[in-house]
Amino acid sequence: MKQLSTVLNGVLLVAVIILFVLHFSNSGNSQAKNIADTTVQGGEVFPVAYINTDSLLLNYSFAKEVNEQLMGKEEASRADFNEKAKVFQQDAVEFQRKVQNNGFLSMERAQKEQERLAKAEQDLQQLNQQLTNELMKEQDKLNRQLRDTLMNYLDEYAKVNPYKVILSNTLGDNVLYGADGVDITNEIVEVLNARHLASK
């Protein structure tokens, strides 16, 4: 995934350099205008904007609540698992102590205790997997809710504002340059927060 991002960034950088060279080498030429003015197609203007996703997630109150909710569930799951793991660890240590001190009356009892501990360890691993799967499902559900709120608002936003394309920008990965007014993150966060507050 990281390699793909690096390759895409490299390709974008080469494309920007080529456009830069073509633009300034043919500055008086109408061909340069066609290359530089990528927002025009068939005479219609296609304005573009972007949202800084990191800032959106940091400042959107619903995103903060979703994150806190998920972290709370993760902490509760971890506490539950750790408690059960601690009990298992104590049982395993006690079993080892009894084996070393010949604390079992018969080999059969020692073997039954060992089988019980093996089953408990297997149950613990299954619990860990179950809790992990539940957290992943919950995270996916909350992420979908978050995305839906954003996409629903952007549908409304695009009807009132002239933008034909709104990009997502994370840590400057996709948008290498944005003129003033093209970053609409703060405007979107403001409205989303107001709508979220009103929905409570």
Describe this structure as you would to a colleague.
By secondary structure, the chain is mainly alpha-helical. The chain has 2 domains: 1-37; 39-199, no CATH class. Helix content is 74%, strand content 7%. It is built from 6 helices and 4 strands, in the order ααβββαααβα. The protein has helices at residues 2-25, 30-36, 53-59, 61-100, 107-160, 185-199; strands at 40-41, 44-45, 48-52, 165-169. Helix 4 packs antiparallel against helix 5 (107-160). The two termini are 38 Å apart. Mean pLDDT is 78; it is low at 7-41.
Tags for this entry?
single chain, 200 residues, mainly alpha, 2 domains, two-stranded antiparallel ribbon, two-stranded parallel sheet
What is the strand and helix layout of this fold?
Layout: H1 2-25, H2 30-36, E1 40-41, E2 44-45, E3 48-52, H3 53-59, H4 61-100, H5 107-160, E4 165-169, H6 185-199
Give the proportion of residues in helices. over 70%
Distance between the termini: 38 Å
SSE run: HHEEEHHHEH
Count of discrete structural domains = 2
Please tally the helical runs, counting DSSP H or I stretches of 4 or more residues: 6
CA-based shape:
rod-shaped
- Give the tally of β-strands: 4
Strand content: 5-15%
Main beta-sheet annotation: 2 strands, antiparallel
From the alpha-carbon coordinates, what is the Rg to the nearest angstrom? 29 Å
| Class from secondary-structure proportions | mainly alpha
Mean pLDDT: 78
Unreliable segments of 5+ consecutive residues: 7-41
What spatial order of strands do you see in the largest sheet? 1-2
